[in-house]
């Protein structure tokens, strides 16, 4: 990833450590594994089969923004000490 893309991606999401790995193959197209942390919550996204380098970052941004917008902490189980 070019330096400018890293800076844009991290700044736009207001996150740190905003990327992991880019790639391209004919079968998978342009791919990106991204990670972002916001307010103590870290999300990881995997985007594949995009048609361009810029599209993989756009889709990653949309996916992570959706994740942060809809994420809520909760408990699946509670402790019962009888």
Topology:
Layout: H1 3-12, E1 21-25, E2 29-38, E3 41-50, H2 53-70
Antiparallel strand pairs: 1-2, 2-3
Core attributes:
alpha+beta; about 35% helix; three-stranded antiparallel sheet; about 80 residues; single chain; disordered N terminus
Tally of helical runs: 2
Work out the number of β strands. Answer: 3
* Total number of domains: 1
By secondary-structure content and strand pairing, the structural class works out as: alpha+beta
H and E string: HEEEH
Strand content: 25-35%
| Order of neighbouring strands in the sheet with most strands | 1-2-3
Distance between the termini: 55 Å
Low-confidence stretches: 1-15
Most strands sheet: 3 strands, antiparallel
Instruction: Report the mean per-residue pLDDT as an integer.
Output: 78
Shape assignment? elongated
Task: Indicate the percent of residues in helices.
Answer: 25-40%
Write up this protein:
- By secondary structure, the protein is α+β, with helices and mostly antiparallel strands.
- It has one domain.
- It is 34% helix and 30% strand.
- It contains 2 helices and 3 strands.
- The chain has helices at 3-12, 53-70, and strands at 21-25, 29-38, 41-50.
- It has a 3-stranded antiparallel β-sheet with strand order 1-2-3, with helices on one face.
Brief overview, please?
With 82 residues, the chain is an alpha+beta fold. It has 2 helices and 3 strands.
């Amino acid at each position: 990833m070019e330096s400018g893309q890293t800076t844009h991606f991290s700044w736009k999401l207001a996150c740190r450590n905003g990327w992991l790995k880019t790639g391209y193959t004919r079968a998978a197209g342009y791919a990106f594994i991204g990670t972002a942390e916001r307010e103590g919550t870290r999300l990881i996204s995997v985007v594949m089969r995009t048609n361009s380098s810029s599209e993989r970052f756009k889709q990653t941004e949309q996916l992570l923004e959706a994740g942060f917008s809809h994420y809520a902490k909760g408990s699946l189980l509670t402790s019962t000490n009888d």
